[in-house]
Fold each of these.
Amino acid sequence: MRDDAWWVAVIELPPQPERPPGSPTKHAKPVLALPKGLVDPGEKPAETAVREVYEETGVTAEVIAKLSDIKYVYTRTWAGGERVFKIVSFYLMRYLSGRINDIAAEMRIEVARAQWVNLEDAPKLLAYKGEKQVVKRALKYLQDHPEV
């Protein structure tokens, strides 16, 4: 909590590589999303979430509660257009340390920038329906658990 408000670390995705060369990106609306990624071998989903938040935002955090699993299918734009079924677990976390957007240079292919967004504004700003629902769950959890 900062300034009597809850905040969420979000990432702005880089422009998609499949855009035709010379296509306008200056006025394109940024795509904002929650940090997420693949579970490494031997890693638990909550550990993945903490690691991915750090890698994609520069922020070290600890898990407070699991909020949701989102299941979806997408078609890869590489590797022959294969369809991929994915389950992403989302957690409410507490900031511990770090500076937003202080991420490794090699992460810039996945993250254009990371920023803090007021949690109440996040459902209007995030690009993906499932993630909008996740931040609404986070708000509800915080209302129901004022001790956090």
Note: Confidence is low (pLDDT under 50) at residues 23-27.
Amino acid sequence: MKSSELVAALGRKLKTESKQALAEALGISAQTLVNWSVENQTITPAQVASALAKSQAAALRTFKQLAIQPIVEFYAIEACLTKQEKTWQLLSIGKDSTTYARGLKEALEGAHGIYIFYDSRGRALYVGKARQQSLWKEMNLAFNRHRAVQKITLVAHPDRNQEFQPGHEKLRQPRDQQLELADLSSYFSAYQVDDGMIDDLEALMVRGFANDLLNKKMETFANSKG
């Protein structure tokens, strides 16, 4: 096989846009690739095998670099009602919102991966994944979702217009109240994760911090048995 034929075939197969991109995908120098294209020399089986091995190593390096990418960490939640005023969303994206906040929303809309909600002290409350839909949509759904495990002992005070009565006149007993994640969360982090790793990374985090998180379901690893 002529070297120029191999280069052309690899470019079509790998759908690279330039010789430089193809060289990086194959794990060889751009000059080597240029030489193959120009000199049109005969490629030996050893050279093909070497190119395949280098390509595999280059693909592995790229995967390691891109498998988990932070989008935002410990971002302060500014909960606001949606336009329909039926649910809460993590941050305001209206006319008065910052360019930074709008950019963050766009990044979350275009990514899948793992997210974490934290309380006011920065302790992790809940870990979730977004594999079928975007991080933005899944995080807001989780932010409003009912969960029976989220209970805290509080006093229920009236929110209607009535006169205040001190505790010595009318004692209001502390009772367990169910709160939403929206009531408890103060910060969130989000990470773009390769689709093939999302399930296992979520399982690792939930199982590793099972006694600290509000997650009710104990996630399992994708390839585990039992």
Note: The first helix runs from residue 3 to 14.
Amino acid sequence: MTEEPRIEEQEQDAQAEAAEEEEPLEERLAAAEARAQEHLTDLQRVAADFDNYKKRAARDREQLAARAAERLVKELLPVLDDLERALEAANEHEEAKLEDGVRLVHRALADALAKEGLTEIEADGAFDPHVHEALLSQPADGADAGAVLQVLQKGYRLGDRVLRPARVIVAE
């Protein structure tokens, strides 16, 4: 009979240990859930901050584009004024003044665009497919094959980007 009370004691101890283990498990589970909730809250805050950043960056880009357009329009206003003066001269049939007015407008417009970084693409020499567009090729005496013979439409760059390639006729 000495063994039987001992088995009962072991069973009681096991039940007590199980009860003790369950309590820390519940506490650990609650602590883990609290940490998970903290992480979720942090993640939601970061997501909201990033969304606000994207909206602010888009707004800044729009404002920058608006300011750039405003600056260009301010540069082109004198050109518009010059065109109006040239049209007034055309109404008075003063051809010399009209020609001078058109030259003035051309120069003012070219200067305004040059200030913005516009440059003309050179079309002298060999054909370059990166900056030229060949519309025709024809035989030419005294010209090397691939040489630009004639420019049909000027090409332009804005900074280092080609806005419009020069349209040319190339020697065969």
Note: The radius of gyration is 40 Å.
